[in-house]
Structure formats: C-alpha cells, structure tokens
Amino acid sequence: MAERLLIRVMKGGNHAKIVTLNGKKITKMPTSLENLTGLRSLDFQNNQIFKVCPQLSTLTQLIFLNLGNNFLEEVPEEIKYITSLKKLHLFGNRISKFPPGVCDGLQNLILLNLNNNKLTWLPEEVGRLRSLTYLSLNCNQLTSIPRQLCFLKNLSELYLNYNQLSRIPEDIKYLKKLQRLSLARNNIEFLPEEFCDLKKLRILDVAGNIIQIFPSGFQDLKLQEFYCEENPLFRKEPIIADQQEDLWNLLEITARFIMNQLEEKNSFIMHAIEEYPDIKNKISKGKRCVICGKFFLTTWLECVQFVSPSETWKISKNLKLIPLRVLLCSQKCFSERGPNIFGIA
Ligand SMILES: [Zn+2]
Fold it and tell me: What's the 333 CA to ligand 1 centre distance in angstroms?
C-alpha cells in the first residue's frame, strides 16, 4: 500500500521535494523512495513502521525526517548516511537502542526529538552532534546523561523531563549557549555549583525532584522563569544545628595555612608551592567561608541561607525564599553569622 501511495506522490515526476504519508497505517516503508533523490522533507509519522528501509540512506538531500509515533525499537543506523539532515523526529516509538555510529554522520543536525521512548542510556557519541541546538528526551528512562553531552556547544534547549536522573554532570557549565533546561520529574537531589556558570540560562524547570537546597551563587542566574514546585525545599525555620567543636586534622590545618598565606601573597609560600604541583592541585579545590572569606579544604560547617528570588524571575507562586547552600569555616564564624543563615542538622 505504501508503494502505491508513494507512486501517487511521484506522479508529477521524480522531482518531489516533500512527501507526507501521515497516519496511513503503513507497516513497511516503500523501497521506491530511492528514486526520490531530491527529496527535502519526508513525513511518516503515525504509522506502524518497525524498521526503516535501507533505501532511506540514499536520500542525501533530506533536511527534515519525521518518523514519530511508529514502532521503531532503535535509532535507525541508516540515518547516518543522510548527512544533510537538520531535523529528526523519532518521538513516540519504542526506542531503547541508540547505536553509537549514528552520530558520526549527523553533523548538520539541529533538532533531535526522542520524547516518549524507552532509552535508559545515551552513547557518549552524542557529543559529536556538533550543530545540535535543540534536544528533547522527555519521558524516557534515563538514569544519567553522558558528560560528552555537555560539550554540545551550540545547544540552547535541553528537555529531560520525566526520566530517572539522579545527578547532573559538573560539566554542564560548558553548555555556554543553554537558554532553556527542563529537568522536571526526576530524582535530582543537588544541582552542582557549576550550574551557576550557565550565564545564558533563562528558563529552568526542576519541579518534582528531591532538591532541598540550591548551590550558592544560584540567585545570580539571569533567569526569566523558574519552576521548582514539589521539591522538599528547606523552609525558613531555625534548623537546630548539631555542630561539634572544631576538629581539624593535620591536612586541613596545613591546607588552610597555605591557602590563606597564598591569598595574602606571601612570596615565600608562592614560590615554594610551584615545586609541589600535587599540593597546588589539591588546594585549588579549596572553598571560601561566607563569613570571614578565609579558605578551607576538607572540613566546614554546612549551612543554609535564605535569599529572596530576583524580582525579574517568574517563579512558582508559593516560593518566597530560595534556600542556598553556604559553607562556614569554623564555629567562630557560625556564631557570627547573620540572621538568615541556619545550620543544617
Ligand atoms: Zn570563616
């Protein structure tokens, strides 16, 4: 039947640029597709296709391909030969496999829609889809995303709603053009501090996760919309802090001394540290106390600070204050903290 429908399309000659066979109960793609070498747009959505035909790979002028709402079980490998492809819709299939080689040919792909499939993982090679600006993976079963995804330097919209993600890679900071990020309905507990480097981010949705606290610096993001309902956020109630006496081991005492001397530009220490790259590397991970501004490395007091969201943010209605994670160097600084900082029990 599909062949017949296609022949009807081809009546005007083999020069068809657009073929739309939407909702025709097609189970097998017509092999005569190979005659349509000048085809730019092919729409086979809402059919019953299990497997694409090998002739698909001959459509080297194709820009738009929609195979949404079919019965595909993997991202078709034939697609890698369609190097002209810019928009690919594979939503609403049964896709659980994403062959790594597919990405190599899709250097011009701008949009990839894999919503409503059964993906549990993504290949590292997604990092090779270098033109990608829009990636949608809503309603899959992803438990993690490969860090290579964070190297898609043109990506501006990323949708990962309704998956099983528990963490976001620190490398997220490399998505310099990211404007919209949707992470609703996952199992995310923390957003990494690097998240605050997403200077272009305007819309963030983290509704329905298990976030209690946001990284410090979060309030400086230039968001326009922020959704965070249904998270067990810390509320502004004094949390009884169960803080012990300060007890630092030798590494911590030494690290603090070196880091704070370097801050004060002690020339002897500055010179000496160059001889010890291992130590230099270790202390580069030091953090700063929000009260006294001094450095620490492995021991701190975990606290929460409540700040008002920026007035320019459009936010969830019941969110009056955002809980931010702040770190203090010592009991002394804890006793000098402001009224908006509480210890976390
Ligand atoms: Zn301090």
Answer: 5
Q: How far is the CA of 337 from the centre of ligand 1 (A)?
A: 9
DSSP tag of 214:
B
Q: How far is the CA of 216 from the centre of ligand 1 (A)?
A: 16
pLDDT band for position 150 (cuts 50, 70, 90): very high
Closest CA to 251 of 210, 298, 190: 298
Encode pLDDT of 197-233 as tens digits: 999 999 999 999 999 999 988 988 999 999 999 999 8
Domain boundaries, the chain: 2-164, 250-309+324-343
Q: What is the pLDDT of residues 64-90, one digit of tens each?
A: 999 999 999 999 999 999 999 999 999
Question: How many C-beta atoms surround the C-beta of residue 299 within 10 A?
Answer: 16
Distance 249 CA to ligand 1 centre (A): 17
CATH class of 2-164: alpha beta
Q: How far is the CA of 302 from the centre of ligand 1 (A)?
A: 12
How far apart, in whole angstroms, are the C-alpha atoms of residue 222 and residue 198? 9
